[in-house]
User: Fold this.
Amino acid sequence: MPQPDTFSAFAARWQEPVEARLRRLLPPTDTPPARLHEAMHYVMFPGGKRLRPLLALLGCAATGGDPERALGPAAGLELLHTYSLVHDDLPAMDDDELRRGRPTCHKVYGEALAILCGDALLTLAFEAVAPAGAEAVRVLAEAAGSRGMVGGQVADLAAEGAEPDLAAVEWIHDHKTGALIRASLLVGALAGGGATRDLGPLAEFGQCIGRAFQIADDCLDVTGNQQDLGKRPGQDEAARKSTYPAAIGLSASLQAAHALVGRAEELATEIGSWTAGGLESLSPLLRDAARFTVSRFS
Amino acid sequence: MPQPDTFSAFAARWQEPVEARLRRLLPPTDTPPARLHEAMHYVMFPGGKRLRPLLALLGCAATGGDPERALGPAAGLELLHTYSLVHDDLPAMDDDELRRGRPTCHKVYGEALAILCGDALLTLAFEAVAPAGAEAVRVLAEAAGSRGMVGGQVADLAAEGAEPDLAAVEWIHDHKTGALIRASLLVGALAGGGATRDLGPLAEFGQCIGRAFQIADDCLDVTGNQQDLGKRPGQDEAARKSTYPAAIGLSASLQAAHALVGRAEELATEIGSWTAGGLESLSPLLRDAARFTVSRFS
Assistant:
């Protein structure tokens, strides 16, 4: 079957299988401790676009693997991403009351259960990724841990109120958001049983779109409205967060995001040629995925 | 080299290699974010007896594997155990101020960093266990997640103040403590490249000593003093925790622990014979390890 050549068609093909796998991975809400399992379902469903799982499936397709085989690890990336949202929202951290238009986990279930719900999702993420093998687990752990996402969150909290500085903002974004987006593509590539090859270009592709994605997110906090965002806009500025717009202004931020997408499109052309012999070229799909990361501007 | 035949000799042989591996796994405190890495070192060193890593190395030896090869995964079990202590101590959970005789992580580094320190240790645990393979990661995740340790902590918090009930106490102990002790033996067995065999007896051995260990811990909270415990005694009773002594009294609790050790010793004899062809029999060592779990009574 030829791959769709737009990211939205690819998403339409794979979002439901990702949902189905997530439902299968989460323990049923009638098994003990029921309240914990309820909280896990509450934060996982309904979800967002499931961007990270879709990127994992793209990474899998890019190496000629079978996306069907990568569904579990792809779902694991969403579990891990969601744990990070649950913990970031806690009173001791960003103290957010709304997420995707609904009360945050600790608002509904209390702080103790929210901490434990995040812990359980993080743990389940590794269970879901395990079938992709030791290297995939290692890649994910490195991206998610103190030298990756958790490190980025620590730096983000420490930078609150500090004078915005581009180098610091880039470090925070690359770690807090970029590392997991990059890892999504790599875990997918390792999960699908595709060809073993140098994944450097895929890693750089992930790094570019990860950074572009976070810049877009920063800009949306300035320009968006509550209905589209599912949370109050302007919170970054109110909390004096280190963001791109705060460091270099809105217009230069948009330019930087588009430059990153441009570089990602170049890499997409190269990566797309990997599978030229067997499948339809994936280049148009990967280029469209890169553009998608900033399409939330419009 | 013949194995030592007492658990304390086995510990003397392997504690320093476990410490060395832990030091190698933790990012240096001068790498960013330095304060997070400092916090991770603070909670890991100095440590306790490193019981879970030692049990992992025992599990490895029991299947004829090379403990040297299991050191990374063994260290991973201590990282995971320590994350659970850091999160359990948080104000939203048990709100403890002392751990191993020192101020708890959130007392020194604040609540946000303590949550993130735990998250980073949990993540690093999976990185450390990854080389043992997909099945070891799966076993650990199941033992640590919502159907294991995290589930036990949820049930423990929910049971505070409730009428003590033996079935509930057993459920909590098996999940909160027992699951990880059992997993330590199994991960070790999977990590060392030993013979593939039915690990059922090793799992039951782990379950028995895990339960005995937790009963001993409950009893110590009643009979111990602050200097030996490194924390204030009597806290379980003050918090109306679900414990063995609260459910069935101190004397019946001690009897239950000794019965479990007795069963573990039987299993130790069986497991020890696995390696009879190659190595010295491990039975005396495993039997002594079982007795060790309750030796903290004296």
In short: Chain A touches chain B through 51 residues (CB under 8 Å). The mean pLDDT of chain A is 91. Chain A has one domain: 7-295.
